[in-house]
Design brief:
With about 625 residues, this protein is mainly beta. The chain contains 3 helices and 48 strands. The chain has 5 domains: about 130 residues, no CATH class; about 110 residues, Jelly Rolls (Sandwich); about 100 residues, Jelly Rolls (Sandwich); about 90 residues, Immunoglobulin-like (Sandwich); about 130 residues, Copper amine oxidase-like, N-terminal domain (Copper Amine Oxidase, Chain A, domain 1).
Length: about 625
């Protein structure tokens, strides 16, 4: 029994001595003292000092990562970012690298195979507790080394892509998603087994959201991200020798609508410039924190008013949510008018007799919604003459409007309401492409309020993007007469103008005679038009008999016959006379529009101020 006790004591002393000797050996190795070490092959390090301080990736040869960054310290410890290996040790003897457990004695992995690729060392070896598992330690390149900002090694994870890999218990992996614009990010994780934590970090490594998947597919979403590099971390719970899973990771990034305002404009002293009678776009409500910690709760805009006049400020948002629109004096404290709340709708602040000076417009949100918005102003100074192109008038069949073209507009929307101050609904299902319109679907003796806005971008229903509208560019108030043409019916209109090669059907502009520039003219006090374009626009046909020079119009259930050089006209076989004859000019047949159209069950109105003929007909 005494001999056994003595033997145990001897073993303990030898173990203690070996540990201390190991630390001393490393210190000597660091100072490049000569060592009697035998390399396993030409790629193997000549001494332990060659391994000290290098950044390594430690994992399995099947690609499983156990630690993306770790270092072999000069004091014999293993240092990594997770803390998992901080209580482990290493030693290098006779061309073999040993990884030693936290007790300082148990060898967990033995690396004895060495290779070099592009000057970087890779070591491969056996796992002590399972002969079927081999490990690899790979020297990282500069591009794979620790990120300066986050002190992590993150794999590139481009927006709207999918990646995959494997994890073991206590292991983790980082991914970096480069976000180039404002938008909403969703990350989906699916694993074959185990429990893995998914966590999303901001560019400055603030945790935004996280969840455990418990072997099931989960999705995390963060709305309203600013541009920057966002990080995703996967951490598998469990033990390296017991837990394992394959994973699939994918992300979806939807770029926010509209161009963002220049950040940081959260206070008046950092306000962005709001152009007079112009527009800007922006975003409010970045979910840039965890829980109830949000950023960008308000945007400030500075507006310079050069002279006294009238100012209108409009706010339009793309997503539901409640915003407040306010206008302040130069001190950014005193309100010019009472603020208004949007509740997801387009709102306006009207300021009459505003004085010249500096003003601030503030947009702030009440809730956590991330919402792109459009902010615009319309200003008319006391010394500014209104644009004469913004013309409106009432005629027998309805109301006629025209306005100044808007830069970069692809079309226009006209909104109509019978309530003052309410924008109402669009008079057409589609946007119109002309800068004039005849509203013929009106009731008699009724006051209508019209608002015109430019269309800056089309809707994209597949992507859930609404039509982008610009600021208000014209408003009108008109009252119809006591009698209107066929009230209670749905009507169409065609507008033609003297010396204008275009016609407009229900607000859609097109050439009368494509490529030839043919225009309506006045002959003998009658408006003469190239009739084919008009008849075909209303769904009819035009026939021509070169032998008799007869023109035959068929549309809307009627047939009209006319002859070149003759005043005779037949309507459904019944003859009558016109006071002007059809003519041929530049190989095109011109007929008097009133005689032709009215005999095809249409009504023709002449607007003298704009020299336009408006043809109105029922569906």
């Amino acid at each position: 029994m005494k001999k056994i006790s003595v033997f145990i004591c001897l073993v303990m002393l030898i173990s203690l001595f070996s540990t201390n000797a190991f630390a001393d050996e490393l210190s000597i190795a660091k100072s490049e003292a000569p060592q009697l070490l035998v390399a396993a092959n030409d790629a193997a390090p000549k001494s332990a000092s060659e391994l000290v301080g290098i950044t390594w990736s430690f994992g399995r040869t099947d690609g499983t990562v156990l630690s993306t960054t770790m270092k072999l310290a000069a004091d014999g410890r293993i240092v990594d970012g997770t803390g998992h290996w901080n209580e482990s040790y290493w030693k290098y003897e006779k061309g073999i690298l040993y990884i030693i457990g936290g007790d300082g004695t148990s060898i967990t992995t033995t690396f004895d195979r060495f290779s070099k690729v592009n000057g970087k060392l890779t070591m491969t070896g056996a796992y002590a507790y399972d002969s079927n598992i081999t490990h690899v330690m790979r020297q990282l390149t500069e591009s794979e080394s620790d990120d300066e900002k986050s002190n992590i090694t993150a794999k590139q994870f481009l927006p709207n892509t999918e990646v995959g890999g494997s994890l073991v218990g206590s292991a983790y992996v980082w991914y970096k998603i480069p976000v180039k614009a404002d938008g909403n990010l969703s990350v989906t994780l699916d694993t074959t087994a185990g429990n893995v934590e998914l966590r999303i970090f901001s560019p400055d490594m603030v945790s935004l959201t996280n969840a455990d998947n418990w072997g099931k597919e989960i999705t995390l979403t963060v709305d309203g991200l600013l541009p920057g590099d966002y990080y995703v971390k996967l951490l598998m719970y469990g033990f390296p020798d017991q837990d394992y899973c394959d994973y699939t990771l994918k992300n979806t990034f939807d770029e926010a609508l509209l161009v963002n305002d220049v950040e940081n404009n959260d206070k008046s002293d950092g306000a962005s410039v709001l152009p007079l009678s112009g527009e800007v776009t922006g975003h409010v409500g970045y979910d840039y924190g965890y829980g109830n910690s949000f950023a960008d709760l308000s945007d400030w805009w500075r507006l310079e008013v050069p002279q006294d006049g009238n100012l209108s400020v409009f706010l339009q948002q793309t997503n539901p949510g409640n915003f407040q629109l306010a206008v302040f004096k130069k001190d950014a404290v005193t309100e010019v008018v009472r603020p208004v709340d949007s509740w997801g709708k387009t709102i306006a602040l009207e300021i009459k007799d505003i004085k010249a000076g500096t003003y601030f417009v503030k947009i702030s949100r009440y809730a956590w919604d991330f919402t792109p918005y459009m902010l615009s102003t319309v200003f008319s100074g006391s010394g500014i003459v209104p644009d004469q192109k913004n013309i409106s008038e009432t005629f027998e069949s309805g109301n006629r409007l025209s306005w100044t073209p808007y830069t970069n507009a692809i079309g226009y929307r006209i909104f109509r309401s019978t309530t003052k101050g309410v924008e109402g609904i669009s008079v057409t299902d589609f946007y119109i492409t002309s800068v004039s319109y005849a509203d013929v679907n009106v009731e008699s003796n009724t006051t209508y309020h019209y608002t015109v806005r430019p269309v800056l971008a089309e809707a994209d229903p597949v992507r859930g993007i609404d039509e982008k509208l610009g600021p208000v560019i014209a408003t009108y108030t008109l009252k119809t007469g006591n009698v209107t043409y066929k009230p209670g019916t749905t009507k169409n209109f065609i507008m033609l103008q003297l010396d204008n090669p275009y016609l407009t059907k229900n607000g859609i502009k097109s050439e009368i005679d494509p490529g030839r520039g043919t225009k309506p003219v006045i002959i003998s006090s009658r408006t003469m038009v190239p009739i084919r374009a008009i008849v075909e626009a209303m769904g009819g046909t035009v026939g021509w008999d070169p032998n008799t020079q007869k023109i035959t119009l068929k549309a809307r259930g009627n047939t009209v016959e006319m002859w070149i050089g003759k005043t005779d006209i037949f309507i459904n076989g019944v003859g009558t006379k016109m006071d002007v004859t059809p003519v041929v000019t530049n190989d095109r047949t011109f007929v008097p529009v009133r005689f032709a159209a009215e005999n095809l069950n249409c009504k023709v109105d002449w607007i003298n101020s704009t020299k336009e003929a408006v043809i109105v007909y029922e569906e």
